[in-house]
């Protein structure tokens, strides 16, 4: 196994530690009521205890509170009708480098290969399109029109030409203090942009094409683009915001490295508050999709941790598939091998989808879509990455990456195709369609690596 590729080039959002979430002035608390919202008396009592409510979510009976009072948690916990008062926890995320061929960014000369058979000039680099048959769904007339995908992530490159046409900027927002939802115009890779592009980059003759190229994108920033950190409060608010903003699908390519430790009242309370948000989303007709995680962990036999947020009830967890040296055999390569890093287990995985991998040992040169690279490069998922600045000009950039973070938006895109075909369909029905029409790989039935199977776009809309 090529450890260089697996460890240094695998991309996924992965938390390396847990710390208390607090600003220099005040600590943040997640307060859950027994009912659907905090009463006026409860709000007054929180204020009297030294708290300031920064967000009240009566939809789920949760409030986000700041306080610099040393005894706030104890005082607020004594307020009648509150289920929990818990200091928020920040997940310190580590986003590894995406794959580059020169200086950390795919420049325009490389990202615009000539001679493509599709009018989007980078489409030939998208092996995932063949694996799950994007074109079969499009040829049947279903391209995601009328559906909305909310991407909860590290913001988005709002002016990227393969993002902007489908981005609903008015509905997009940030829950990361001090950071806007739009990524700054600087060099570097942006995880949220890559994820959004996989799901819904438009078919505009410029670059790659998303699974649902006519779906609307709502970007909801819950992770800092600079530090990679995010907290439960931001994720909870992001889910509720996306739901109320009209999302049909919420994509969370997020995952705690090694899993979230179970046990302990504080973490349990924060997980339960997040569960309220995901359950609210589902009740409002939203399918919540999450990456299964990148630890190569057997979740059927690890009771000490839970995949978060993929392990929450009602969340569809997605594992990752990839080819091995696809560039050597574009027509015949197996595109459905379990990725070397993907978490697995019948208790967790709902579906599989293209996530990419850089674990191949094949170093020989391959040429795909007019681009020459070591063959293993092309096994990654190619999608919008952010911006590059060259000669004082700003260029859109594209990047290869690999992780369950890349698999989840493939499923979210297919779900958007189904929502586009069946307006008003319930998330349980969408999930049922995705499972029934997936290609049953591995062991017959529910497989540890593939779940119900590898998602199939054409079959899903033919249902």
TrEMBL record:
InterPro entries: Peptidase_S8/S53_dom, Peptidase_S8/S53_dom_sf, Peptidase_S8_Asp-AS, Peptidase_S8_His-AS, Peptidase_S8_Ser-AS, Peptidase_S8_subtilisin-like, Peptidase_S8_subtilisin-rel. It comes from the Bacteria. Residues 1-26 form the signal peptide. Residues 144-453 form the Peptidase S8/S53 domain. PROSITE patterns: SUBTILASE, SUBTILASE_ASP, SUBTILASE_HIS, SUBTILASE_SER. SUPFAM superfamilies: Subtilisin-like. Keywords: Hydrolase, Protease, Serine protease, Signal. The active site is at residues 153, 191, 405. Transmembrane segments: none annotated. Belongs to the peptidase S8 family. This is Peptidase S8. The lineage of its organism: Bacteria, Pseudomonadati, Pseudomonadota, Gammaproteobacteria, Lysobacterales.
């Amino acid at each position: 196994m090529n450890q260089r590729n697996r460890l240094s080039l695998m991309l996924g959002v992965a938390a390396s530690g847990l710390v208390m979430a607090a600003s220099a002035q005040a600590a943040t608390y997640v307060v859950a009521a027994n009912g659907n919202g905090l009463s006026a008396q409860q709000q007054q009592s929180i204020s009297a205890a030294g708290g300031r409510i920064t967000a009240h979510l009566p939809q789920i009976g949760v409030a986000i509170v700041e306080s610099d009072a040393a005894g706030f948690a104890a005082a607020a916990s004594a307020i009648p009708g509150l289920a929990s008062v818990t200091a928020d926890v920040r997940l310190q995320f580590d986003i590894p480098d995406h794959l580059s061929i020169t200086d950390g960014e795919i420049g325009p000369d490389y990202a615009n290969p000539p001679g493509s058979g599709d009018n989007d000039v980078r489409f030939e680099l998208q092996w995932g399109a063949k694996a799950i048959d994007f074109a079969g769904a499009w040829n049947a007339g279903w391209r995601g029109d009328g559906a909305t995908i909310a991407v909860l992530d590290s913001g988005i490159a709002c002016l990227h030409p393969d993002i902007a046409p489908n981005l609903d900027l008015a509905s997009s927002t940030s829950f990361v203090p001090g950071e806007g939802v739009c990524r700054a115009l600087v060099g570097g890779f942006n995880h949220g942009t890559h994820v959004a592009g996989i799901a819904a980059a438009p078919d505009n003759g410029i670059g790659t094409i998303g699974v649902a190229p006519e779906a609307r994108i709502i970007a909801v920033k819950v992770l800092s683009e600079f530090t990679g950190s995010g907290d439960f409060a931001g994720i909870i608010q992001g889910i509720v915001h996306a739901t109320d903003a009209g999302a049909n699908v919420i994509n969370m390519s997020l995952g705690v490295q090694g899993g979230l430790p179970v046990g302990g009242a504080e973490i349990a309370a924060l997980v339960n508050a997040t569960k309220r948000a995901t359950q609210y989303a589902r009740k409002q007709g939203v399918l919540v999709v999450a990456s299964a995680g990148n630890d190569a962990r057997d979740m059927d036999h690890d009771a000490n941790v839970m995949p978060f947020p993929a392990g929450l009830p009602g969340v569809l967890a997605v594992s990752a598939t990839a080819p091995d040296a696809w560039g050597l055999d574009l027509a015949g390569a197996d595109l459905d091998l379990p990725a070397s890093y993907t978490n697995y287990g019948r208790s967790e995985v709902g579906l599989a989808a293209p996530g990419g991998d850089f674990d191949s040992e094949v170093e020989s040169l391959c040429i795909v879509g007019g681009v020459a690279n070591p063959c293993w490069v092309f096994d990654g998922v190619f999608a919008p990455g952010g911006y590059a600045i060259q000669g004082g000009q700003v260029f859109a950039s594209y990047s290869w990456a690999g992780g369950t973070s890349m698999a989840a938006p493939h499923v979210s895109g297919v779900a958007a195709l189904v929502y586009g075909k069946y307006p008003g369909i319930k998330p349980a029905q969408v999930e049922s369609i995705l499972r029934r029409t997936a290609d049953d790989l591995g062991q017959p039935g529910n497989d540890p690596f593939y779940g119900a199977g590898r998602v199939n776009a054409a079959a899903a809309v033919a249902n």
